[in-house]
């Protein structure tokens, strides 16, 4: 029986980061991973690297470059002639990016002394992990500490069974070899919008069927309304309150039945993507007597430091409460191994940024205006449009705005929400500011480079207190 200080189950952003940090802290560490890639080799990196964050961003970037060359280069005086897209070449590049990153994790494991173990991990009683190899053989690992980081999988819905041919999930949507003439997407959340954007830019007629009556309810409503207008202008057909009731595939197409505004409707698509959310990968993970408990949705019960109900067993990432975000899982991994090493650390769950990688990007941190209203927190708002930022106008990319929320009495920043170019990077400035308890005035007094997109953040902070320079300020109500 092999013995380790730490055994991590899962090598996604939560698991591999935890394993590397544990090894850096001098703990004998193993990481168990069952996934294999197209070449039937061990696929480190989890969903994010293999079939999520990284490959989708590769396709988003490729499709946006095509869109820019086809539709926007002429505005800059650049002539390109007929612009074409080679979809198989685009997919091949995506695969190469993924392979490169997987190799990078393997190199980091080797450099830090992490033992990589291939197989399916299961938590047993007494801080033991059973590993089932591809050939069915089993072995037992003994650990002083176990970290569960098994991630999540797409939610399936009975009306639209995935066949990974005509009806696909988010994984299958990364493998199309041609542009569907008409593409249906069930779900207009983060994944649906990103994947819909990829194929819309490449020429698909994209229809998103969203069961909810509210568009992007997790996003500040002012930003969500702006996003809805932008996506409609881009050609995305987003139908809210559309509940899919059945699908039927025939002759290489799929007919989708759904209810919309109390009417029964049907639509025929060449491809259909099902992306209605994700659920924790916890099925078959735990022996009945291991002491780790699940809630009714399959999430593992943990405390604020990701400790489960079993001594010495932790769980992090998508398999526990909180947003299913790679960076949230990674930081939980660091926190857990620091605690294992005897350090006193905590994680600030109030300052986790979220991003939708459409173009323009949508990003936010902290409270939305709706949350502050519901909680009865006195607040003030500052907004600023990218249309008034010289760098954005010069780049022909001036859609969107920055919205800053601060406490009415203390001026402390409570949230920041952005739709616009590079929103994911711009919001990170406010993540740092909020970690240090900064006020809107602190941001307003900071010198920002000119001309930059980040000046929109500066001006929004100034606008909170009626001091914006490059736009008229709202008159305060008496």
From TrEMBL:
Misc. comment: The active site is a redox-active disulfide bond.
Spans traversing the lipid bilayer: none
Protein name: Dihydrolipoyl dehydrogenase
Segments forming domain FAD/NAD(P)-binding: 4-333
Pyridine nucleotide-disulphide oxidoreductase dimerisation domain mapped to chain residues: 352-461
Alphabetized UniProt keyword annotations: Cytoplasm, Disulfide bond, FAD, Flavoprotein, NAD, Oxidoreductase, Redox-active center
Catalytic reaction equation(s): N(6)-[(R)-dihydrolipoyl]-L-lysyl-[protein] + NAD(+) = N(6)-[(R)-lipoyl]-L-lysyl-[protein] + NADH + H(+)
Any one Gene Ontology molecular-function term assigned to this protein's record: dihydrolipoyl dehydrogenase (NADH) activity
Record's cofactor remark: Binds 1 FAD per subunit.
EC number of the protein: 1.8.1.4
Main location: cytoplasm
């Amino acid at each position: 029986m092999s013995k380790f200080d730490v055994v991590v189950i899962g090598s996604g952003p939560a698991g591999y980061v935890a394993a590397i940090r544990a090894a850096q802290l001098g703990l004998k560490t193993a990481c168990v991973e069952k996934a294999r890639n197209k070449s039937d080799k061990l696929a480190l990196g989890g969903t994010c690297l293999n079939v999520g964050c990284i490959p989708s961003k590769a396709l988003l970037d490729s499709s946006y470059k095509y869109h820019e060359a086809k539709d926007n280069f002429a505005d800059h005086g650049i002539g390109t002639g007929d612009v074409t897209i080679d979809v198989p070449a685009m997919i091949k590049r995506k695969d190469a990016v993924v392979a490169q990153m997987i190799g990078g994790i393997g190199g980091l494991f080797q450099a830090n002394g992490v033992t990589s173990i291939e197989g399916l991990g299961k938590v047993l009683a007494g801080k033991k992990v059973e590993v089932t190899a591809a050939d069915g053989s089993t072995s037992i690992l003994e650990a002083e500490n176990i970290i569960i980081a098994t991630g999540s999988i797409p939610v399936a819905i009975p009306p639209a069974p995935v066949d990974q041919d005509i009806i696909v999930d988010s994984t299958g949507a990364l493998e199309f070899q041609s542009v569907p003439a008409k593409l249906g997407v069930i779900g207009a959340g983060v994944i649906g919008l990103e994947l819909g954007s990829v194929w819309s830019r490449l020429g698909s007629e994209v229809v998103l069927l969203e069961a909810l009556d509210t568009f992007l309810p997790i996003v500040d409503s002012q930003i969500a309304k702006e996003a809805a207008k932008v996506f409609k202008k881009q050609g995305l057909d987003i139908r809210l309150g559309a509940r899919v009731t059945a699908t039927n595939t025939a002759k290489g197409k799929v007919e989708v039945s759904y209810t919309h505004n109390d009417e029964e409707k049907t639509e025929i698509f060449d491809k259909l993507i099902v992306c209605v959310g994700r659920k924790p990968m916890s099925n078959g993970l735990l022996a009945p007597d291991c002491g780790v408990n699940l809630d009714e949705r399959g999430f593992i019960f943990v405390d604020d430091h990701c400790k489960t109900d079993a001594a010495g067993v932790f769980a992090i990432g998508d398999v526990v409460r909180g947003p299913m975000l790679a960076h949230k899982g990674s930081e939980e991994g660091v926190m857990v191994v620091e605690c294992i090493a005897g350090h006193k650390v905590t994680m600030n769950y109030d300052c986790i940024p979220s991003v939708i990688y459409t173009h323009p990007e949508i990003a936010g941190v902290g409270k939305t205006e709706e949350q502050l209203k519901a909680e009865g927190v006195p607040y003030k708002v500052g907004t600023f449009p990218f249309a008034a930022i010289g760098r954005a106008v010069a780049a022909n990319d001036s859609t969107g705005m920055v919205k800053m929320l601060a406490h009415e009495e203390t001026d402390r920043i409570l949230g920041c929400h952005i739709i616009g170019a590079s929103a994911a990077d711009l919001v990170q400035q406010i993540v740092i500011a909020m970690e240090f308890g900064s006020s809107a005035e602190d941001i307003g007094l900071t010198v920002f480079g000119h001309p930059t997109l980040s000046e929109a953040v500066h001006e929004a902070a100034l606008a909170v207190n009626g001091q914006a320079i490059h736009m008229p300020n709202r008159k305060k109500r008496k």
